[in-house]
Amino acid sequence: MKRLIFTLLIATIFMTVSAQDTPKDTIKKTADTTTNGPKVLISYGFGDKEYKWSKDSTHYKKRYPKFTLGLTLSRLDLGLTTLIDHGSFTLSPQNQFLRYRQWKSSNNGFDFFQMGVRFNDSFKIYLSGGFDWTLIRLRENITILPNQPVLTYRQDSISYSKNRFSASYLRIPISFDFRTKEDRRGNRTHFVIGPIGGFLLDGMVKQISEEHGKQKMWDSYHFASFRYGAFTRIGYGLFGIYAKYYFNNMFEDSPAQDGLRNFSFGFTLGF
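Below the sequence we write its predicted structure tokens.
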């Protein structure tokens, strides 16, 4: 998985840099050319800056609706993750073993693919795909056990300098993107809302201790195989903030964790 993510990042960055090396006069001339060419454009780029390719290498004037499909490197999220137990930020007694360090429990992710329709200069709908990680830094000296009928842990007698319980997902958000007109600097303000789904890729326990060094264990750990929720993003230019809340339980087939859900918020780069 790490090799796949690394390859996608390198490929996207390479294409973005290559596109940015294209003379500005050429891009402007191409964008202003009226043609009866295809309305579906293959695009790649970073954030709101897209570089398009078509069969005849020409583009028509801004004409809507406009369809795009391609690679991207956008919505790079760096934030915190919070567990919500039956609507409370305080964990119930049966979930106290999941006590975590708030400022070290994070949510990270990015999108690498998107397809969408721009209806006018101010509104666009697009479906994207990417990766999303939930990284919970546990306070207790415990080990979450793999291959158990329900979420189960073992109390350990050693002290862990790091005890991280994490899950990685393939995320699939649908974005309703409202943006303002460009200002003097050429930047826009974005307001984005929409539903988000995710398919579980794997779960992991990572521990570091003097006794055993670094240890990693992989399993589903009863993380929801599919999660769904809603998100919002607000920003100016390339930078903004985001929030995501998932409506279903964080864990499945584990009755004691019923009602335990996930909320994340933080900074985002690229629209």
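The chain has a mean pLDDT of 85.
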